[in-house]
Amino acid sequence: MMTNTNRPFSIPKPCLAVGILVLWACQLMADPASATEANPLRPIDTSSPRATLQGFLETTNKSYTEKTSLLNTYLTSQRLFLAPEEVATMQDSLSHIESVERTLDLSELPPATFRESSRRLVLQLKEILDRIGLPPLESVPDEDAMSKLEFKRWTIPGTAIRIARIEKGPRTGEYLFTAETMERVPEFYLKVKHLPYKPGASVGWYDTASNSPSGVAIALHNIIPPRWVLTAGESFRAMFLGQPLWRWFGVVAVLGAGLAVILLCYRLCRHWSKRGKSAKRWARLLKPLSVVMVTPAVVLILAEVLRITGIVYQAFTFSLWTVFYLALTWLVWMAGSTVAETVIAHERLRESSIDSQLVRLALRLVTIVLAIAILIAGADRIGLPAYSVLAGLGVGGLAVALAAQQTLANLLGSIIIMIEKPFAIGHWIKVKDMEGIVEDVGFRSTRIRTFYDSLVTIPSSQMVSSTVDNMELRKFRQVKTFLNLTYDTPVEKIEGFVEGVRHILQNHPDTRKDNIQVMFNDLGPSSLDILLNFFLKVPDRMAELTERQRILLDILRLAESMGVRFAT
To answer: Do residues 197 and 67 both lie within one domain?
Structure first.
């Protein structure tokens, strides 16, 4: 990285910034994540305040020196592209910054802005230490000295910058710059940025790293010569809202490209929807899926290539991650419905059947759980504590439950009906004073078509608490009536008529033979009453009426042949 007194590079031109997105997409994944070194897994020693401070200073100075020397050598040469070993060195200097981050307690940073915030805090803290001056390292407590002290912390003399031992968590026992210090680092930097540098300082590192397009140059080093990016016109270094103008051109290009991809996916969705009902169900997932794919890519480019900073970065990042998690929730919600309808179509279930409703309900419950989990993860990522979100959902859920007790009772009733299946679509049932054919079982109510063609809607909570008489599940259908003969009918004819009716029932193919009751039952006020009670084995209501008619017509023919008259 170059110093403030000798900067041989500047901001890229607008056209270069606009073209960066397309070219970077081809290059980003081609490079290794970091350069190799003697032992890349060796962390900075954080066993004491001295070790932590020394590790911070040595590693940041090494990163600054390597990058500054490399860029000076490259920019003074005639080469267009960086050599492979120079690229490795550049990436190695970036890995040093990541190593330094381990000396800071960054546990309070939101995950969504962690990369930019941690990088910015490292550079600002280095700027502060380069300006205030430090005591000799020999005077900073080492591990032996700290073991004798009651309070396991050390403060840089004359400042509020503190290194303290972590008492809980995965890094227990390590000495780190405290979270409170990290929270105040931007404040400290503003207070000391006007002070002169001390000898051996990394002069102008923060300003150069924040405003130069080095991230773009590294990302596109195999496609565009880095010197073209680094030596672009000085006029585009002008600042607007804390960002150089070249960066704003890049932001517009990235957001425009992301929006173009989403609009293209919307067009594809409309095109695929014309291929049939099944294709339409799956094509509609492309809308939220496009947002889910685009937003993380945009965030990555803004953070790692354009390297926007400060409040602008936070505004874009929080907004984009919020959109991402909302779109992911939308995607999961629609996917549950799509899978349910696909299962129903594949199994050839009736769309309004209880089995279909049960499939929909099961997948809806799964998507609700997943949606809640996604929203909690999203809230945690943008800095809202998960326990606060859970508590809020709990309080909100309790309030909703109290306000919608009847609705929840109906939903529970529908679940019970779908699981126990006391009836199905098309069954003839009796509920209280209602009787008819079941047309639909929903998540809130059951609809019954009565025999006088009205549609009765019964809340599911009432259905499960009422006695349901399912007439459709009968193996045998009872026929019970009385044959009323006139009082002038002779006893012999009554006996013969009873035997004749019994014979008709015994010979009918659809009657239950072990329970036929034909008896002279009562002396009515105006008739002699013969009890007729038997069962028909028929599949449905229409067959029952047909066979009942046949039997009654046979009885009328028997009465006519015997001269038996019915009372009026």
So the answer is: yes
List, edge to edge, every strand of the sheet that includes 434-441. 455-459, 445-450, 434-441, 428-431, 468-470
Q: Tell me how many degrees the CA angle 231-235-236 measures, rounded to the nearest 5.
A: 75
pTM: 0.60
pLDDT score of 184 more than 50: yes
Kind and range of the H or E element at 372? helix 354-381
Helix (H, G, I), strand (E, B) or coil at 519: strand
Q: Which two tokens stand for residue 430?
A: 């009796």
* Same domain membership, residue 233 and residue 265: no
pLDDT of residue 36: 39
When divided into structural domains, the chain yields a total of 4
Q: What is the DSSP string of 134-163?
A: ---GGGS--HHHHHT-SS-EEE-TTSS-EE
Phi first, then psi: what are they for 135, rounded to 5°? -70, 160
Region 410-428: mean pLDDT is 77
Q: Which residue has the tokens 């309004």?
A: 352
Neighbour order of strands in the sheet with 528-536? 477-485, 528-536, 517-523
- The torsion angles phi and psi of 515, rounded to 5 degrees, stand at -145, 55
The residue among 188, 219, 237 that closes a domain is 237
User: Could you give phi then psi for residue 488, rounded to 5 degrees?
Assistant: -90, 10
Q: Which two tokens stand for residue 457?
A: 């809607």
Q: Report phi then psi at 35, rounded to 5.
A: -80, 160
Give how far the C-alpha of residue 66 lies from the chain's centroid of Cα atoms, to the nearest Å: 43
**Alpha-carbon torsion, ordered 25, 30, 36, 41, to 10 deg:** 60
